[in-house]
Amino acid sequence: MTTNVTAYAAPAAKAPLERTTVPRRAVGEHDVLIEIKYAGICHSDIHQARDGWGEGIFPMVPGHEIAGVVTETGSAVTRYAVGDRVGVGCFVDSCRECAYCEQGLQQYCEQGMIATYNGRDKAGDPTYGGYSSHIVVDEAYTLRIPDGLSLDVAAPLLCAGITLYSPLAHWKTGPGKKVAIVGLGGLGHMGVKIAHAMGAEVTVLSQSLRKQEDGLRLGADRYHATSDPATFEQLAGSFDLIVSTVSAPLDFDAYLSLLKTDGALVNVGAPEDQVKLNLFSLIGGRRTLAGSAIGGIPETQEMLDFCAEHGLGAEIELIRADQINEAYERVLDSDVRYRFVIDTATL
Ligand code: NAP
Ligand code: ZN
Ligand code: ZN
């Protein structure tokens, strides 16, 4: 039997989010029922609530940075008990059989991962995300939040944290590596913290110097404004790795010129419009342009444990549910320091 729970939903594309209820399935034998305490606002929520990527399912309850507490467990659940502090990220299931699922790379599942919201579960029903009071998730797609992290600052790690941790780890960030993070927003600020904790020399490339003090405090060694053309001359050929978190189309040729020979520019931003690329930007320095999507379940747990060990939570602005629409506008204006997190007690 399904239960209706309180949520905030966009009733249609571009419509303001409003209070409503959505159904949650009965707790199955492998499921946990989670009382959601905090839900981060990712820029992906805004792209999707406004149907910027197309094919959105409405009404839509966004939210894939979920932190809460287990309040019920199914009969076959072995990993979690009532009272455990847990998180849910961008997906709640996948085929579990393909080569990627078997390797723990569920985000690249051949059948497509089942997104936490704006997706359809295996029964064909729409999925609803974290801007809600409760969620029912299979224990295999649930993460443990280590004791050292409080739930509010842990919530954004479930998307922003893992989306930066995964490429930084994959491209072997560490001592002696020069890494640039483009865009100091939700993803970018976690990138700075994590790359610094991994031992790299970190540079922030932001549109202006407005947030320079913060960037240096978060762990950056250098900070440059991309609005200043001198930045691109000064930093030409200097990075091993650049991770772009920018939510709008970017001049990738300009950023590729900042890589050393054999350097890589990894794009994680998901703009709604296409970008142009001059392939000579890659040829000259045997450079790589790559993409990366969140991270699988094992790597997400590894990231949470890494963040707890290094004391890395997100920098958050806690908001009430009735401030979500205003928060969306501020994210669109790059006026976020550095993640809005909804206190779900205010739903
Ligand atoms: P965010 O908090 O809005 O941060 C994006 C940052 O990009 C802004 O703070 C701003 O930084 C910079 N920026 C924005 N517009 C720009 C423009 N026109 N030109 C240059 N820089 C600009 O967003 P987020 O939540 O971090 O998400 C960033 C992007 O990643 C979104 O597109 C989101 O959908 C995507 N995403 C992808 C994945 C994945 O798995 N690949 C996961 C999560 C999110 P400055 O003010 O410092 O310039
Ligand atoms: Zn996200
Ligand atoms: Zn699969």
From TrEMBL:
One Pfam family linked to the record: ADH_zinc_N
SUPFAM superfamilies, per database record: GroES-like, NAD(P)-binding Rossmann-fold domains
Cofactor needs: Zn(2+)
Record flagged with keyword DNA repair: no
All copies of domain Enoyl reductase (ER), residue ranges: 15-342
EC number, as in UniProt: 1.1.1.2
Sorted UniProt keywords: Metal-binding, Oxidoreductase, Zinc
InterPro entries noted in UniProt: ADH-like_C (IPR013149), ADH-like_N (IPR013154), ADH_Zn_CS (IPR002328), CAD-like (IPR047109), ER (IPR020843), GroES-like_sf (IPR011032), NAD(P)-bd_dom_sf (IPR036291)
Group of enzyme by EC: oxidoreductase
SMART domains (alphabetical): PKS_ER (SM00829)
Similarity comment: Belongs to the zinc-containing alcohol dehydrogenase family.
Annotated protein name in UniProt: alcohol dehydrogenase (NADP(+))
Native species: Streptomyces lichenis
